[in-house]
Amino acid sequence: MTVIDVHAHVFPKISRAEARMLAGAGEPWLRDGMMMSGEDDYRPVTPELWDAGARLAAMDRTGVDVQVVSSTPLLFGYAADGARAAEWCAMVNERVLAHCAQAPERLIPLCQVPLQDVDLAVKTVTEAKAAGHRGVHLGNHVGARNLDDRDILLFLEHCAHEDMPVLVHPWDMLGADRMPGHMLPWLVGMAAETQLSILTLMLSGAFETLPRSLRLCFCHGGGSFAYLLGRADNAWHRRDIVRADSPRPPSAYTDRFHVDSAVFDPRALRLLVEVMGAERVMLGTDFPFPLGEQEPGSVVAACPELDEDARAAIMGGNAAAFLGLRS
């Protein structure tokens, strides 16, 4: 069984001078094991985040054969103007490719795009595919624009036409001013952001118009979506304002996307598989961050309701199909 982790991050080495390309829009860079935002310390990190040798050694220790490598969300650059963001994304994408080129059979690169400008985002993903990227990594919103924004939907349609799978990651979490401590934006806000993204696509009617060939995966097990799907369905049946733009209840669209398995509890994974189907769940660890799954696949192994076929699918088979990898 080939073990494929679809949710693993990279922060390639970027200098302070290079980060000034995003003047006024975060200016992320690396300094001595610290992610920086301008002059401010953002988070301490370990070499696995930027050093391919350290990454591969960690994969060997934990039994991961393949990682799908996506940029750390701090690098998105969505607050910059489109032209600067496109230049920034080109640099980040080039360095992600170089990182993955050190073990091309084991490290699968995803590009990022200037999602704030649909024309530049379309151009960037087409160029990135030609350069060797195997998919796209997106934040789940751009400012107040959710995934059902007209321009973002046009971009997702383009990804479908380019046959580029899309990994959606929560970021810039809502309500952060009410969650100043204890990493609550990551513990509460991220789950809410992802549920918001999924329900927005469902209730706006976007899934009725997006090509079925579009391959979407939402991180962190889809956030709080699976647990609250019954509430959403109940609201759709009982309130016309909920179903105004969607001809079918939310549960009718669970075959339109995948989720990763990063839920950290066999009971949660059991519910996720019941809601999504085992064929829609893929191993994801959030490597190499401390809030990620430190023993990849341990929750899958500890879920007694999964048979061996389901475990094999979640651990790698589903991801191979999602990414179009050779079997």
From TrEMBL:
Residues 4-325 form the Amidohydrolase-related domain. Its EC number is 4.1.1.45. Keywords: Decarboxylase, Lyase, Metal-binding, Zinc. Pathway: Secondary metabolite metabolism; quinolate metabolism. It is an enzyme of class 4 (lyase). The keyword Metal-binding applies. Belongs to the metallo-dependent hydrolases superfamily. ACMSD family. Monomer. PANTHER family: 2-AMINO-3-CARBOXYLMUCONATE-6-SEMIALDEHYDE DECARBOXYLASE, 2-AMINO-3-CARBOXYMUCONATE-6-SEMIALDEHYDE DECARBOXYLASE. This is 2-amino-3-carboxymuconate-6-semialdehyde decarboxylase. The lineage of its organism: Bacteria, Bacillati, Actinomycetota, Actinomycetes, Streptosporangiales.
